[in-house]
Amino acid sequence: MIEKTILGHPLGLFxxxxxxxWERFSYYGMRALLVLYxxxxxxxxxxxxxxxxxxxxxxxxxESLYGPLATQPLAxxxxxxxxxxxxxTPFFGGMIADLFWGQRKAVVVGGLLMAAGHFLMAIExxxxxxxxxxxxxxxxFKPNISTQVGRLYPEGDPRRDGAFTIFYMGIxxxxxxxxxxxxxxxxVYGWHYGFAAAGIGMLIGLAVYLFGQxxxxxxxxxxxxxxxxxxxxxxxxxxxxIGGLVILATINIxxxxxxxxxxxxxxxxADKNTDWQLGSWQMPSTWFQSLNPLxxxxxxxxxxxxxxxxxxxxxxxxxxxxxxxxxxxxxxxxLVLYFVxxxxxxxxxxxxxxxxLCTFIYTTGELxxxxxxxxxxxxxxxxxxxxxxxxxxxxxxxxxxxxxxxxGTFYDTLSKDHFFLMLSIIAGVTGLxxxxxxxxxKQVNRSVH
Length: 449
Fold this sequence. Notes:
The chain is mainly α. It folds into two domains: 8-220, Growth Hormone, Chain: A, CATH 1.20.1250.20; 235-449, Up-down Bundle (Growth Hormone, Chain: A). It contains 16 helices and six strands. The strands form three sheets. It has a two-stranded antiparallel ribbon with strand order 1-2. A hairpin with a 2-residue loop joins strand 4 (277-278) and strand 5 (281-282). The chain is globular.
């Protein structure tokens, strides 16, 4: 690894920053179009004599579980399966990299698979094959590029926290531009142009990674024999902590099930029930999905500064209290939509300002729950099991994303106001349930004040 620095950080950090930025551009660009593509074209096409490989089997399987599914509920189920599996495969991709391939090879293989998946979206009959490539590729890519960020710095280096903050900004930069570019191309010029742009973004990210490899840490393979021989015994307090984290991760499933509606039913609502007319210009509805990363840019430093002020005066809420507040803010965001829609005719469109406000509130909730949850797991987990428990935490995102697909099946069967009220109630119950876990974790780990 060549030691060069920019702004006090290794040059390798910026190689990883731009690699991840373009990968997230590809992921969120494709996600911005996915539900619209299925509901407005693919499913109808598959049912009218244009076969999609494996689609009939998948639909039959889902309908064996949930009964007959119309176009929108079926699209919601497929969306939930796809986004859920994206969070499931990194557990195995990280394991394969640790024991066999190393991080570099895993990232390259993952990037190639994802690029292939995006371009395969242009072949309608291979839609499910394309999703499979994206799911497997993400499993290799996601855990192994993040690992390399930490390995750029020696143990105890104070720059490490700042490095992850910079890296996180790369994620949101890609997520911000993706709907603006891929969404516009897909909605205005044709679906396949949007998917192709996502594929090109992935290739650019992979090129950055390959050209910058000399600035990155060498792959690290674990000694499999040593890993098996290592003492894995746990104390009673360790088991109690693990129990508390398992309960918390289970509750966390409900948060993600509601939050991930932004790429599913909220995108449909933005497209059909929201007025994006700004003067004489009609804004593409997929631009709605750029609001979340935009607000993260704005809110993250402000909330960090606010938290420091509260710490100075001894008023900073506990970790669990912040997570509970995050879920309650998610509840409030959908409660806003409920009251706006309660006395609105089903055929009316609401002002885009209400959806902007909803997004602002649930983004604030995300910042109080998601990064703080990761911090909690790393803080209280038994040292020997911290990686496994972090994997378990991400698995809660898998189940939450899949559940988001199931909840989305009620979008067309309930009135819009009642659908958003249902989401608000689920998020509110989640916030109250999180507070119930606090005594258990506080009892076994005093760092959870």
